[in-house]
Sequence to fold (438 residues):
Amino acid sequence: MATIDLTRRTMLAGTAVGLTLSPGLVRAATKARRALPKGFLWGAATAGHQVEGDNINSDTWLFEQVKPTLFSEPSGSACDSYHRYGEDMDIARNIGFNCYRFGVEWARIEPARGEFSNAALDHYERMIDACHKRGLAPVLTYSHFTTPRWFAAMGGFEVGDSVDLFARFCERVTNAFGDRIALAATFNEPNVVYHIRSIPEFKMVAALAEAMKSAAARASGSDRFSSTVFTDPALFETNMIAAHKAGYQAIKAGPGDFPVGVTLAMTDEQGVGAGHLAAQMERERYDAWLKAAGESDFVGVQTYTRNLVGPSGNLPVPAASEKTQMGYEFYPPAVGGAIRYAARVSGKPVYVTENGVATEDDNRRIAYIDGALAEVRKCLDDGIDVRGYIHWSLLDNFEWNFGYRPKFGLVSVDRTTFKRTVKPSALHLGKYAKTNRI
Ligand code: GAL
Fold:
């Protein structure tokens, strides 16, 4: 957390990222880059539901189908990565990455309670092997927002059973191919709900979210339908932290010996003015989960922007600031503040497991990458144990309730033919990755 003079910082950030350099200067700047620790992970991330397509047994698929819904469009076939993962990994390798972050879909692996699909487990095992074949370390997410539909209809993490059910799922997955996983997170952003509930628009859509959950419950013949994204965290956080711990134990007890942690949704909380509440915001949004990460092996930092906090709470994005397609402030240095806070409170090594920007203008993605990596460099220079930078996302994909409009990808995907086209920003990030220098 930092207290800032808003005008000055915003102007400085704008200058740093908006600069146009001559090719000679770019060459000089590249030369000036310094080596990173050996084994530093460079990669891009995806999540099953957002790229695979046809994840029909998941809670989110149902949310997309019911009326009313918060989703602007259904995920449908997404990027068809369920079938095209080899092509995606070829691209990741050719960019110059040494890892690939992806998720397994619980809804495919356990489509009905207690019924495990060997075919789905085989599929993900093939993905793990396909990573290794290309020299990509597989970075696995056990649960990336989605749960099986039956699990949500049972009450999800609001009910005590969820802890053992999640641990059993972790055990099955680990038994199948844990000996070949490089790094894994139990949950992706289990704290994202705090961010969602604090945006001003949430108040307007809260009733719609409840109506969507009721419709999903009715469609499932249940009186409930839980979601960690659309439910008050007071109802599920204790169980979910217990599930993380039980999942961690289950994974550690299985084959393989790889670091296991949890990834968190983090903005850089910056206080504005006397009596600002930035420290309180940090405690509320992060500390319970950073403590849980502290009892695991690492913390995954996932940062897209900063959050300005005044004496009475969050402030709007400054009117003069550039905004991304998500409406976030374009603010690449944010990742630095998040890394510092996560490292300090958890006491564990940090991997940046997501960082990126939604934009149609790939030059702005390039500027964003440069700005963010400069902060990673500073963190390393300050002795913080940062061990990887994984960009969100490899592909333009299904951005949850926003549908396919926001473009986070280093690679675009034709919505009809699924043809992938590598963007210049991918090659730009690849230069850092190939040289392992910032
Ligand atoms: C994260 C999430 C990703 C992706 C990204 C971009 O919160 O883990 O799945 O959607 O944001 O908004």
